[in-house]
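> example.struct
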């Protein structure tokens, strides 16, 4: 069962200096725990964009119903 989340995050990378905030819907293969560690979410986002985990800073994350 997939789960969709609305997310906002920033990239802490000099390459994205002028446009470093992103938002949109992310779909995962399975739902995350209700109170997942923000570091885990940042790692998932970083992996999907082929970035290192320390480059991503989570702003908000909420499940869509």
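> example.seq
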């Amino acid at each position: 069962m997939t789960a969709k989340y609305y997310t906002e995050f920033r990239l802490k990378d000099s390459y994205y200096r002028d446009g470093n905030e992103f938002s949109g819907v992310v779909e995962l293969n399975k739902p995350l725990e209700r109170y997942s560690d923000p570091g885990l979410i940042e790692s998932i986002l970083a992996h999907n964009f082929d970035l290192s985990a320390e480059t991503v800073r989570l702003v908000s994350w909420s499940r869509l119903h």
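> remarks
Residues 38-48 form the longest helix (11 residues).
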